[in-house]
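tool_call: predict_structure(chain=1)
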Amino acid sequence: MARPKKQKVQKRRQKKKHKKSLRRKEIRRSSKPYQLDPFLEDGFGSSSAMLPKLSETIIAYAEPMLNEAQDINQEEKALEMAVTFWNLSFDSEQNALQLLKDHLENLFPDDVELRQEFLDIFHMMYHRKHEHFSRDRRFVLSKSIDETPDGLYLQVSSTII
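tool_result:
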């Protein structure tokens, strides 16, 4: 008497696995290739599952600064600045600018030219974020930049805001 019940349970499990497998296949079939502006649809839904890793997006965002880097140390600084500017871009430009100015005055109290250069780069990157990555609402919570034989490796953790 227990056997028929066991067989029914196994059949239900098999059907459930089969349905799940079909859903996965459908998702893979209908997946769209990543585009530079990833949130093309309203809401997050299935489109958020198709986003590239945020580290890859940050590297694309940092491209103008990375192109100017002369060595691996400058590349690392460019990535660190890119992450900072990425997060600051979620605030209004005026608020972010004031926060940045206060911080820069503490870091470089005697170097006005360096502060101004830093602010100019911030303006460029702020507008870059809003022009090319405006719908990406992932906020970087932490980052790790490691040197590998192939170059720098950026790893981030994030949350959607």
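agent: Residues 27-42 have pLDDT under 50 and may be disordered. Proceeding to next step.
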